[in-house]
Amino acid sequence: MPLGTLDRTPPPFFRQGPSALTKLALFSALAVFLMAADTRFAMTQPLRAAVATALLPVQRALQVPVDLVAGGGQYLQGLRTALTAASAARAELASQSLRAAQVERLTDENNRLRALLELRPALQVKSTSAQVMYEAADPFSRKLFIDRGAANGLVLGSPVINEAGVLGQVTRLYPLSAVVTLLTDRDAAIPVLNARTRQRNAAYGGVEGGMELRFVAGNADVQVGDTLTTSGVDGIYPPGLKVGQVTRVDRRVDTGFARILVTPSAVIDDVRYLLVLEPVGAQMTPRPEPDPPPERPVKAKGTKR
Which of the listed residues 82, 128, 197, 200 has the most CB atoms within 10 Å of its CB? Predict the structure, then answer.
């Protein structure tokens, strides 16, 4: 082979370009420039947005199998939960149907007995729905501000309840708002009736975040778990509303009274909507005024006894 036809260029592996130090300096400077440009002038933001837009379909396509696996597990779990809830709802519906039939029968029986005894019909308590605006900032009291007031027909002393039981009482009234003193306030008190023993008492607030029955004899028939309801004898609260449950009974030897703690039925810290009832006394016949004392005859002057 003639020597003139040989390729005398070095192979690519042996080609010498810029030195490694030169490349390091060049690329370091380029990296610093790109970082500074991105931080100060946001020059790479359009490029970043274009790359993200181009890769979005790929990301979604790769996310589909993961979503299918996770969604399939959640679907099966949700289906199992829904079937369990449906079974519980059917059982509760059957129980409520039985209770509704019993309530209807008892209502008819009550109406017949009232007609037989010529008693006046039960009072129909009027109610007004309200929403809690905020809680009073005073740390030593438990009061709520609601968005209904005198313009909505509220009066002082109106009972306040929710679906769980009695919450408190309207103690301050404004034209468009009102203040509700809760049962756990230290100045609150409510007459109660023990649903098991039918004994009346009074529950006072401000004791360990709940209420307390005071002046109860040490040998009184009160047990843990007894349900307390409104007695209806105060002319404010309708009878039969849930107030609380006895959670602790301390029968002290050194005194003649027992210390009885009560937990309110209504969860006061999680109240959003409530009902304000008309006081029962507003529907009752007002008490007749006492007859004035008879006038004593005036004796004429100069008469002898």
Answer: 128
